[in-house]
Structure formats: structure tokens, C-alpha cells
């Protein structure tokens, strides 16, 4: 999950970026609106966190500019004032949710998960594909009701694939959405992750949840269940 | 809606808007009307008096001439015989002299007891007449006689007799006052009638002119109340030169007040940003870097929460402008839709259906920000607690005699509702109804402050339709 974080206050930006990375997100941080618009247009993010009070270009303008540029990923705005005028304007300009400073980091994480999930068409916090259930709130995965122990990177890869269940996800997509910019994209680490995920989810090799589309990428092959909306 | 949602009514009695009439100084129109009334009455009275006096003098002079002419006619026709005897005229200059009691009399007295009178004067007593020296004349009147009040003209002549002796004669022609006054009275009556008509017309014209010249003042007053109602931003009509000094200053004052508020809000926004960002840094650093449940971490986090609530509450309190005289009218429907759309977006996962019942043209008199805070917090609260339905009702109550209609604004949900014994506790400032839901208490405190600042009333009860909580804010007509 690749996140754009635009926040001018350095300590807050660094703390949040560190915390998000620790939780398995790939984070690109920008300190002002101009840097934000540059990154936001160039990088295929899964979500953007934008502070409204930014130097050079206000957060409101940034949200508007990103939407006008055709970026569809969810945007969460951070506002210090917390006035409804700001919230309504931000949401009208294309943001999807807001948080009033100072917020709880846990609250922020919960909102991020919900937004990403909703953006992929999942309305409930538990992504269910057949026997495999991924709880985005608890960040846990169960297969046939049994908890599967995953590292945070493995979890993120699985979450991304399940969010886009049934769709083809290219290797480039996956690396871009899961890893930091400095990650060596040519390495076969991704293949190693996928291999480990397959073994952990399907030790007997009967479910075959992750399909390899030769030369193009991967697809989560088990269709969505649990009466979800898509 | 149910009967219990009826707006509180207040009879339009004379209170602050209408000072007691006994103390109110006279209106400009009344002053001008009274002043003109007095001036006109004085002026027309004097004109009447002068005209009537002039007419009387002219009439007297005409009477003098007439009587003189009659006297001369008599004298011319009188002759002296060879024996010094006076020969009386046999013609009359006016038929009235021959008609007894006509009011026009001629009397002549000469030396040696000569005495003559016209037929009209037969049997009447003219003993009060004095003989005059030749060449003397006299116009007298009115004098009281037995025949009533008389004007008379006497002329003394000496007629030459053939025996060279002259005969002295005094000819008097008299007219009763009735005849003279009759004509005068007609003139006076006509004069009074016409002057009165003129006076009434002038007063009516004056009132019309006054109305016309006071029109700009009335325009200013009506424009002011438009500004007060919020229908207009400032006094925007064209005013006469004499009033522009006043209207421009009022506009400058209104503008200044708005700018001040704007600046104040900007300052508060900056303050909020600069106070809350450090709090956000502290919180995020503590929550993400300090591991475990140390008592220091929890203690600091608790204080951060308290500071955050204080800052949020006090800033929002300071930003609430409250009831203003020059409030603009903020249409409610558009803002409510924006808010609901925003909340539906944020609470999309919950699938809440928010219904509207907003009366057409319902407006909020105050700051747009305050309306958004009020509605936003109430709606957010409802979205948080509702299961699937939220209802927003906005109604107005127009009452004659009040500039601003009453307003009823309620937000209901189908959630668990609030137990009656908890309502009071929830309405206590700063007390959180439920600690689990972030921002719950602060939102309601802000709502209460806005309600208080705008002199409205907040009622919390159970929604008759949805079964959950209902928060109603009511403004009486003002």
C-alpha cells in the first residue's frame, strides 16, 4: 500500500512516516503542496494524507489539483482548525475523509484501512474470499478459521492482492505499492514473498489462491464472498 | 410533523423595538406639518385681515364719493328764487330717495329755517346734523341714530340770491350702515371661504412635498432593516447628497465590522493551527515511538487530550460571533446538503440514509461558519449514533410585526437515543456523553455555545418518528 503524506511540520511528518512504514506501508513524504502535487501526479498511490495548512500551495488546492489531474485514490485530509467549513470544502473538493489534529495514530491507521478497502469496493472490514478471510482492522488472516502467521510485508502483499481480487496485478504494480522508492525492483524478493504466502495460505496446494499470469503478474483467483457489494 | 414540534410563539408586543410613544419625539413630518400649519394660519389670517381692511377702506371711499355726488347733484339742482327763497330740486339722483325707508336719505337745511328732506327721509329725525360753513364738507360714520347706524356726507354752500344776498345751505346725504356692511360682509365671507380653501390646499401640498422630500430617509430606514434582516450586504441604493455622509459612514461601519470578524477568524485559524500541530506531534510521537504502557506515556497522552479539547472548545467558542444586528441571511438548504453529502461520504460504510425536510427559503441569520458548526456537529452526532436513518427538519415561522421569522431546526436519528436522566449530564459543558466516540462531547459543547450565543434554545428529547435522539434548536421570531 503506497501512501503519499503531505505535511509541513517536520516532526509530525517524520513520526507518521516512520509509523506507517512500520505498519507495512510504503510512504512518500512531501513537505509542501508543490512537492505534493509533483509526487501525487507521478506515483500511483493507494492513498494520500494531506494536511490542509501547507506552505506554497494549500492542502485544499492540492486536493483539487490531484482530482483535476484525474487521480482517483482516496484522500484523507488533516485539519488543525477542525471547522466544518474546512471539512465540507475539503470533502467537496475531492477528499474522502478528514481527521482533526491532534489525532490518535491508531485512528489514522483505521481510517486509512477503511478508505483503501472502500476504494477497492469492499465495504466491510473483513475481506473474505472463500475460506480465506483477511481482517483489515486486526490485520490478521485466517484460513478455514485458523490464524495464519504473516509478516507485515506478506500481509501487505496479500491485502493488496485480495483488495483487487479477480484483477490482474502486475509485478511493477505490486512493487510500487508495497515497497519504498529505494527498493531494488529488479530483485526477486517479490517472488519469494509470493512463494511464502502460497505455502502459508495453502500448505496442501488445494486452494491455489494466487495465480501467476506468465510474464504479466499475479491474480488473486478466489472470488469475493460474504455477500460483499461487488 | 407532530404538534409538539410547533414553534414557540411570541406575541408582537411593543418592547425594545418600539419605545413608549409618550417619550418618542415628534416625527419630522408632524413637526413640519405643525410648523407649516401655524405659519399658514398666521399668513392667511393676516392676508385676510389686510384684504378685508383694504376693501373696507375702498368701500368707504366709494361711499364717500357716492354720497358726495348725490349731495352735489342736489345742490346743483337747487336754486334761489328772486325773493331769496330756495327752490328745491324736482328730480332725484337715485330712485331710493323717493322710497320711504330705503336707507338712503337726503336732508337740506338753510338759513331762516329753510328745511327740506327727500321722500325717503320724511318723518325721520335728523336733528343731530349741524349746519356747516359754506365750502366745508364732512364725511362721518358710522353714527348711532334712531334710524340705526348711519354714514353721512354734509356739504355747506352759499347760494347767491338775486338780491345779492347769499343763502347758506347745508346738504346732507346719509346711508344706513346695513347697506354698506351688507356688501362688506359678502366680500369677507367670500374671502374667508377662498382663503380657507387655499389654506387646505397648501397644507395638502405641503404634506405631499414633505412625503416626497422624506422619501430618501424612509428608503434609508427600509434599507437598514434589509441589512438587519440580512437580505442585503450594505446600504446600496442611491441617496441624496445630504444623506450620503450618513449612509457612507454606516456602510463603512458595517464593512469594518465584517472585516474585523474576518480578521479575527483568520487569527483564530492560525492560532488553532499553531497550537494543535505541536499537540499532534506530541501525540503521534508518543503513540508511535514510545512502546508499551508506561505511566508517563499515558499521563502525557491524557494531558494532550485535555489540552486538545480545551483548545478546540475555546477556539470554537471564540469564533462564534453570536447574534448580530447586521447578520447576513445564510440559506440553510445548500449548506445542509453539503454537510450531509460530506458526512455520507465519510460514513459511507455505515450506509446511513439522511432525509431532509427543509422549508423553502429558510435562512439562518448569522455567520455561515456558525451555521456549519451547529448543523455539522448535530448531524455528525446523529450519523455516529444512528443505525441507518437520520432526519433533518428545518422550519420557519413568519409572524407579522417581526423582522426575522422564527426558526426550528432539528436533527433526529434511529439510534439508541438518550435516557431522560442522562440528557442533563450530556448538556453539561465538557462532559462527554460517551468516551468511546471521539469528539462527541466537544461537538455538543460547541453546539450549546452557538445556541447560547445566538439566543436560541436547545432541546434534547426522543424522536417521535425515528425513535432515537432528537436535538432541536429553536429561535423565536425577532
Q: Helix and strand layout, with pairings?
A:
The complex is a heterodimer of chains A (230) and B (478).
Chain A: E1 2-6, H1 10-22, E2 26-30, H2 33-42, E3 47-51, H3 59-68, E4 75-79, H4 84-92, E5 97-100, H5 105-119, E6 126-129, E7 132-135, E8 140-143, E9 146-148, H6 152-163, E10 168-170, H7 171-178, H8 189-201, E11 210-213, E12 217-220
Parallel strand pairs in A: 1-2, 1-3, 3-4, 4-5
Antiparallel strand pairs in A: 6-7, 7-8, 8-9, 10-12, 11-12
Chain B: H1 28-76, E1 79-80, E2 86-87, E3 104-110, E4 115-117, E5 137-145, E6 148-160, E7 166-176, H2 177-229, H3 241-289, H4 295-319, E8 329-331, H5 332-346, E9 353-358, E10 363-365, H6 368-385, E11 389-397, E12 406-413, H7 420-427, H8 440-453, E13 457-462, E14 469-475
Parallel strand pairs in B: 9-11
Antiparallel strand pairs in B: 1-2, 3-4, 3-7, 5-6, 6-7, 8-10, 11-12, 12-14, 13-14
Helix pairs in contact in B: 1-2, 3-4, 4-8, 5-6, 6-8
Could you explain the architecture of this structure?
The complex is a heterodimer of chains A (230) and B (478). Chain A has two domains: 118 residues, Rossmann fold (3-Layer(aba) Sandwich), CATH 3.40.50.2300; 95 residues, Arc Repressor Mutant, subunit A (Orthogonal Bundle), CATH 1.10.10. Chain A is α/β, with parallel strands linked by helices and 230 residues long. Chain A contains eight helices and twelve strands. Chain A has a five-stranded parallel beta sheet, sandwiched between helices. In chain A, strands 6-7-8-9 form a four-stranded antiparallel beta sheet, with helices on one face. The two termini of chain A are 21 Å apart. The relative contact order of chain A is 0.12. Chain B is an alpha+beta fold. Among the domains of chain B are: 101 residues, Beta-Lactamase, CATH 3.30.450; 150 residues, Histidine kinase-like ATPase, C-terminal domain (Heat Shock Protein 90, 2-Layer Sandwich). Chain B contains eight helices and 14 strands. In chain B, the strands form four sheets. In chain B, strands 4-3-7-6-5 form a five-stranded antiparallel beta sheet. A five-stranded mixed beta sheet of chain B has the order 9-11-12-14-13, with helices on one face. The N terminus of chain B is likely disordered. At the A-B interface, helix 1, helix 4, strand 5 and helix 5 of A face helix 3, helix 4, helix 5 and helix 6 of B.
Amino acid at each position: 500500500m503506497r501512501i503519499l503524506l503531505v505535511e509541513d511540520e517536520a516532526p509530525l511528518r517524520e513520526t507518521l512516516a516512520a509509523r506507517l512504514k512500520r505498519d507495512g506501508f510504503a510512504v512518500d513524504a512531501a513537505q509542501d503542496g508543490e512537492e505534493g502535487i509533483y509526487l501525487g501526479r507521478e506515483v500511483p498511490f493507494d492513498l494520500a494524507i494531506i494536511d490542509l495548512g501547507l506552505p506554497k500551495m494549500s492542502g485544499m488546492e492540492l486536493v483539487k489539483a490531484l482530482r483535476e489531474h484525474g487521480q482517483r485514490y482516496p484522500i484523507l485530509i488533516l485539519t488543525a482548525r477542525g471547522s466544518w467549513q474546512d471539512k465540507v470544502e475539503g470533502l467537496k473538493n475531492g477528499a474522502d475523509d478528514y481527521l482533526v489534529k491532534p489525532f490518535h495514530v491508531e485512528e489514522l491507521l483505521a481510517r486509512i484501512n477503511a478508505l483503501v478497502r472502500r476504494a477497492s469496493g469492499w465495504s466491510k472490514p473483513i475481506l473474505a474470499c472463500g475460506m480465506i478471510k483477511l481482517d483489515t482492522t486486526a490485520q490478521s488472516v485466517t484460513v478455514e478459521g485458523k490464524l495464519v502467521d504473516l509478516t507485515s510485508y506478506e500481509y501487505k502483499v496479500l491485502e493488496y492482492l485480495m483488495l483487487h481480487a479477480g484483477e490482474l496485478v502486475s509485478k511493477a504494480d505490486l512493487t510500487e505499492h508495497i515497497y519504498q522508492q529505494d527498493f531494488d525492483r529488479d530483485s526477486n524478493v517479490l517472488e519469494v514473498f509470493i512463494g511464502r504466502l502460497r505455502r502459508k495460505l495453502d500448505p496442501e496446494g488445494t486452494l491455489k489462491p494466487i495465480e501467476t499470469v506468465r510474464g504479466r503478474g499475479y491474480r488473486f483467483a478466489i472470488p469475493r464472498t460474504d455477500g460483499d457489494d461487488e | 410533523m407532530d404538534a409538539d414540534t410547533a414553534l414557540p410563539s411570541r406575541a408582537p408586543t411593543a418592547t425594545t423595538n418600539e419605545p413608549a410613544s409618550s417619550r418618542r419625539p415628534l416625527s419630522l413630518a408632524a413637526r413640519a406639518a405643525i410648523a407649516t400649519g401655524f405659519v399658514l394660519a398666521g399668513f392667511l389670517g393676516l392676508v385676510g385681515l389686510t384684504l378685508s381692511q383694504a376693501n373696507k377702506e375702498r368701500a368707504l371711499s366709494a361711499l364717500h364719493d357716492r354720497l358726495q355726488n348725490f349731495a352735489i347733484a342736489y345742490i346743483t339742482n337747487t336754486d334761489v328764487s328772486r325773493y331769496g327763497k330756495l327752490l328745491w330740486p324736482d328730480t332725484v339722483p337715485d330712485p331710493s330717495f323717493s322710497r320711504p325707508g330705503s336707507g338712503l336719505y337726503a336732508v337740506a337745511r338753510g338759513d331762516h329755517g329753510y328745511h327740506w328732506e327727500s321722500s325717503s327721509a320724511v318723518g325721520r329725525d335728523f336733528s343731530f346734523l349741524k349746519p356747516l360753513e359754506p365750502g366745508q364738507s364732512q364725511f362721518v360714520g358710522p353714527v348711532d341714530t334712531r334710524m340705526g347706524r348711519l354714514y353721512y356726507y354734509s356739504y355747506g354752500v352759499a347760494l347767491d340770491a338775486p338780491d345779492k344776498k347769499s343763502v347758506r345751505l347745508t346738504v346732507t346725504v346719509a346711508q344706513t350702515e346695513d347697506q354698506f356692511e351688507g356688501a362688506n360682509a359678502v366680500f369677507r365671507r367670500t374671502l374667508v371661504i377662498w382663503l380657507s380653501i387655499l389654506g387646505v390646499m397648501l397644507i395638502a401640498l405641503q404634506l405631499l412635498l414633505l412625503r416626497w422630500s422624506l422619501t430618501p430617509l424612509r428608503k434609508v430606514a427600509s434599507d437598514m432593516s434589509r441589512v438587519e434582516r440580512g437580505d442585503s450586504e450594505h446600504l446600496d441604493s442611491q441617496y441624496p447628497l445630504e444623506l450620503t455622509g450618513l449612509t457612507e459612514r454606516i456602510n463603512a461601519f458595517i464593512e469594518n465590522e465584517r472585516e474585523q470578524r474576518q480578521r479575527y477568524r483568520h487569527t483564530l485559524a492560525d492560532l488553532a493551527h499553531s497550537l494543535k500541530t505541536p499537540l499532534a506531534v506530541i501525540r503521534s510521537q508518543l503513540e508511535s515511538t514510545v512502546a508499551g504502557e508506561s505511566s508517563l506515556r499515558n499521563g502525557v497522552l491524557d494531558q494532550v487530550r485535555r489540552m486538545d479539547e480545551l483548545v478546540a472548545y475555546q477556539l470554537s467558542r471564540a469564533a462564534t460571533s453570536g447574534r448580530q444586528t447586521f447578520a447576513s441571511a445564510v440559506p440553510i438548504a445548500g449548506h445542509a446538503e453539503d454537510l450531509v453529502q460530506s458526512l455520507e461520504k465519510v460514513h459511507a460504510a455505515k450506509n446511513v440514509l439522511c432525509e431532509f425536510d427543509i422549508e423553502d427559503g429558510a435562512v439562518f441569520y448569522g455567520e455561515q461558519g456558525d451555521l456549519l458548526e451547529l448543523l455539522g456537529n448535530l448531524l455528525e452526532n446523529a450519523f455516529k449514533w444512528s443505525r441507518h436513518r437520520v432526519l433533518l427538519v428545518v422550519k420557519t415561522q413568519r409572524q407579522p410585526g417581526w423582522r426575522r421569522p422564527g426558526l426550528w431546526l432539528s436533527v433526529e436519528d434511529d439510534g439508541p437515543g438518550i435516557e431522560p436522566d442522562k440528557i442533563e449530564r450530556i448538556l453539561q459543558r465538557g462532559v462527554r456523553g460517551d468516551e468511546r466516540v471521539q469528539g462527541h462531547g466537544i461537538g455538543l459543547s460547541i453546539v450549546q455555545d452557538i445556541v447560547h450565543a445566538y439566543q436560541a434554545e436547545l432541546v434534547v428529547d426522543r424522536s417521535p418518528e425515528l425513535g432515537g435522539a432528537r436535538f432541536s434548536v429553536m429561535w423565536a421570531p425577532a
